[in-house]
Amino acid sequence: MINIVEFALNIYPIYASANSNPISDPDHLLDTLAGEPTLETGDHTWDRVFQIILNLGNTPKRIYFPASYTCTTALDPAPDPATYTKYPILNTLNIDRPVIISGDGGRSTIIEYANETVLSPAIRVLATGVTMEHFKVRRSNTGQMEHGILLSEPASIKQLYVELALSDGIHIEETANGCHLYYVKLYNNARYGFFTAASNGVSIALDVNANLEGAVIDQSKSGNNYYGCHTAGIESGPQPISYQAKNGLFLGCYAEFNQLSPKIDKPGIWIGAESEIPVGSGTIWKDQTFYIQDKNRGIRFENRTGGSIVDFTAGGALKGIIFEFGANEDFQTGLFPFERLDNADLDERQISTVRSRFDLYRQLEELIDQRQQLIERLEQTSDEEELAEIKILLGNNQSRKNSVNFEISTVEESIKDIPIGSLDDVLFGRWRLEYTPDQAGAYSNWYRLRYYAQPMLNDPESVLVPAEVSTGMAFSSTVANTTDNGSGHRLLGYVAFPRGFFIGSGVNRIKIGISDIAPENPTKIGDIIFNSNPAVGSPAGWVCADVGSGTAWRTFGIVEE
After folding, report:
1. How far is residue 123's CA from residue 244's CA, in Å, rounded to a whole number?
2. 251 - beta bridge partners?
3. Cα 399 from Cα 65, distance rounded (Å)
4. Helices marked H in 384-488 — which ranges?
5. How do 309-314 and 269-273 pair as beta strands?
6. Contact assessment for residue 411 and residue 433, using Cβ atoms and an 8 Å cutoff
7. pTM of the model
């Protein structure tokens, strides 16, 4: 390992003099290297020191940048000697051979690109076998750093910070297949935090925040793997893309600050994503993409390619719920009043605003539910590490709630002048298969397929309680009521239809348990409705018959005394 500061003090002056570029004041070389270099005064810069080390005949395996360095000889007048905490460079660090470059930490060792006239990356990798770890790359106030790090060949990057690039924090070219990134933070870059055109890479725990045009942009041909990555947008204004990929595998990745949803152009897999994927924010899913999400500690499957079932959740912490599912209008945006929009003079932007309102309330409901679960965990544990983790999660939850509430207030303000009437009575719902042995009433200790309809309440802090619950089907279990009260028959394995039972469609439909009064409007010849409450002298049901001049309902099966 070569310590770049010790090399600068003891060996670099020899190389400089040998190349007719002597150092005027060797005792204060570190002051010169730490100054603000320009093209006119930059005869001696840290990038030149680095390049000499890299070009040594026996290339070192590691070049080490300490977090700080001090000029040991005092200048006249005091207060020198001075201690410096950054390494200004005037030229790109071109790495054309295998080497490890390390520092004392992403917050401690700082390499700063300070060239005011040349737009160029701070570091460019031109050889395989390069590792960079434990330092920060950034642009000076007037520097023209295009990318923080440009990879033309694959490299390993560990625990690095990259900020303030005029383009991308890390930019990976198509030739750099197989890059590995671990715990890299990319923030406040003017275009993308992370961009790759290469494939077969692995990125673990990328933290990509406040990059103006996008966080993780993957334009590779065959995809990369992302594990536990986090993105956040900006606190106001149009939000950048969180994830964009043609393909790939994403495990445990999520986004904050209501970023635009991931854009997947070809089949891809998302597993364990924490963040809500907003509806109506551009192209979300295409082809055969599906999405597996943590939902109430269970697993949610979503397929947004079209089709009737778009959401299915299995397991979870919600009491008694085995799985739940919903169709497009049920689960994503509620029973959206599209008919209100048909005759309204609205443009696409206004329609999108109205629809986004429903999605925001859904996000808020899930955050409220998540917060309640975290509070329950907080009350049940005494482990210090778990308590600290829960408090962090509660803080993140509150931050996301604040962001969603801000979005809601913005939408509510912009929706005031849209002439579609009140939206407060609009419902959304879902089907749930439940088993609740401690619930009283009919079909207790049964498995029940129930439909929940929930109002979109204006109070963002209220827990949304179902306004109506309809049991469509119930299945008796081994602990269900063992006999029917009337006949005494065992009910083990029986199926009940509390809302009625429909057989067939179109013509010759049979409806059982629907009504106890005569139907009024004839439908199709052969339709049959059984009386749900027959009594002596009343019919067993009604049938739609051909009466010559049309169709009419006629009774059948009069109940005798």
Report:
1. 25
2. 227, 271
3. 36
4. 384-415
5. unpaired
6. no
7. 0.56
Distances (CA, A) of 500 to 3, 26, 505, 510: 81, 95, 15, 10
Asked if 312 contacts 292 with a C-beta cutoff of 8 angstroms, the reply is no
Q: Cα–Cα distance between 10 and 2 in angstroms, integer?
A: 12
Residues 241-269 have pLDDT tens digits of 888 887 788 877 777 755 555 555 444 55
Classified as helix, coil or strand, 67 is coil
Residues comprising the chain, all counted: 561
Residues 6 or more apart from 267 whose CB is under 8 A from it?
247, 287, 288, 289
For residue 195, give the nearest of 160, 149, 128 by alpha carbon.
149
Amino acid in the structure at residue 119: L
Q: What angle do CA 233, 271, 173 make, to 5 degrees?
A: 60
Q: How far, in Å, CA of 444 to CA of 481, rounded?
A: 8
Rounded to the nearest angstrom, the gap between the alpha carbon of residue 550 and the centroid of all alpha carbons in its chain is 58
Q: Which pair of tokens denotes residue 213?
A: 């045009």
Show Cβ contacts of residue 479 under 8 Å, excluding neighbours closer than 6 positions.
437, 445
What's the token pair of residue 101? Answer: 């470059």
Answer with the residue of higher pLDDT: 449 or 325: 449
Local structure of residue 438 (DSSP, 8 states): T
Distance CA 463, CA 275 (A): 20
Residue 192 CB partners (closer than 8 Å, separation 6+): 167, 168, 169, 171, 211, 213, 214, 215, 216, 217
In the numeric block, which tokens belong to residue 375?
A: 């509070």
> Taking every pair of C-alpha atoms in the chain, what is the biggest distance, in angstroms?
123
HSE value, Cβ hemisphere, 13 Å, CA-based, for 458 = 7
Distance from C-alpha of 243 to C-alpha of 235, rounded to nearest angstrom: 18
Angle between helices 384-415 and 348-380 (to 10 degrees): 160
Peptide bond before 79: cis, by omega within 30 degrees of 0? yes
Amino acid letter at 424? D
Asked whether the beta carbons of 253 and 226 are under 8 A apart, the reply is: yes
DSSP 265-287: SS--EEEEE-S---TTSS----T
pLDDT digits (tens, 9 = 90+) for 364-394: 777 887 888 888 888 888 888 888 888 888 8
Residue 41 structure tokens: 């005064």
Rg (CA), the chain: 34
Question: Do the Cβ atoms of 74 and 15 come closer than 8 Å?
Answer: no
Hey, what are 379's tokens? 């009350």
Q: Coil, helix or strand for 83?
A: strand
Continuous H helices in 35-171: 46-54
